[in-house]
Amino acid sequence: MTRQSLFRRVTRYAPGPLSTPAENRLTEAFAAVLEYADDSLAAAVLDEWGIATRGPVSVHTQVWSGGGRHIDLELCHGDSLCWVEVKHGARLHADQLFNYQTDLARREHDAARRCLILLAPVGFDDDGQSDFADDVSTWQSVGVVLMNWLQAQKDHDPVHAWLVAQFLEFLREERLAVTQPLDAEDLKVLARRRGSEQTFAHVLGEVHDMVAAKWRTRRDESNNWPRNVRREWWPEGWEGWSPGPGFRPYTYIGWGVTHFDPTG
């Protein structure tokens, strides 16, 4: 079977009306790096996940799971099998990891020779599904493995080294991994972050009050709800930001909008 070019792999997914190709393109880019670089790189990644390689590693993407589904990434080595569910900008479907684990068990009956990994950004909300994965990894940890691989040996094939370095830069551009040491400006940004979050939450609260005065609240809203819980009947989408640990944006689209503002 002829291997697809690197450029074909990362461009064959087109944007759709309800989806973006970011996750699939990231998967293909990662797979290409593991496939084109020497086997020591894939072995280092598997070792990070607690998996000892058993021979050369073959890499496949969008593999039919056998249960009417496709797994993002499959790494085969010797008589062992590793499935990787890649996340970037999308949530898990209901029972997704449970279904993959079930399909994987049908494919490989020996539990010692199979593994299911959830690979996601730092702070990813897995909706409690991580219990069905054998390990949960982050793009940050993968970035560290790739950095260590580059630095461990200076005699890597220059093409392989360049490819890995470019993927590390891609992870940085996608805000999935910190691949460079923090400088003084980075520390200043971190110091200002909390204040910015609180300011933005306050602005959203003021906007809420202005819109609520015009559109009025829903009839089923309790009068004794705390001020930081807001339910409005708004014909628009907007973004709510939840400051604090695990800070991340939420986008609400539709008529019924619920927003929690921890700053109240």
> Could you tell me the number of beta strands?
9
Morphology call: globular
Largest sheet: 5 strands, mixed
Mean pLDDT: 79
> What gap, in angstroms, lies between the N and C termini?
60 Å
The helix-and-strand class reads alpha/beta
Which regions have little confidence, pLDDT < 50, spanning 5+ residues?
Answer: 218-222, 224-264
Strand order of the largest sheet: 1-2-3-4-5
The radius of gyration over CA amounts to: 22 Å
Order of helices and strands: HHHEEEHEEHHHEEEE
Percent helix range? 25-40%
Strand percentage: 15-25%
Secondary structure tally, helices: 7
Tell me what the structure shows.
The termini are far apart. Mean pLDDT is 79; it is low at 218-222 and 224-264. It contains seven helices and nine strands. The chain has helices at residues 6-11, 22-36, 39-48, 96-107, 139-152, 158-173, 184-215, and strands at residues 57-64, 70-77, 80-86, 114-120, 135-138, 229-233, 238-242, 248-252, 256-260. It is an alpha/beta fold and 264 residues long. It is globular and about 65 Å long. α2 (22-36) packs antiparallel against α6, α3 crosses α5 and α5 packs antiparallel against α6 (158-173). A five-stranded mixed β-sheet has the order 1-2-3-4-5, sandwiched between helices. A two-stranded antiparallel sheet has the order 6-9. Strands 7-8 form a two-stranded antiparallel ribbon.
Topology:
Layout: H1 6-11, H2 22-36, H3 39-48, E1 57-64, E2 70-77, E3 80-86, H4 96-107, E4 114-120, E5 135-138, H5 139-152, H6 158-173, H7 184-215, E6 229-233, E7 238-242, E8 248-252, E9 256-260
Parallel strand pairs: 3-4, 4-5
Antiparallel strand pairs: 1-2, 2-3, 6-9, 7-8
Helix pairs in contact: 2-6, 3-5, 5-6
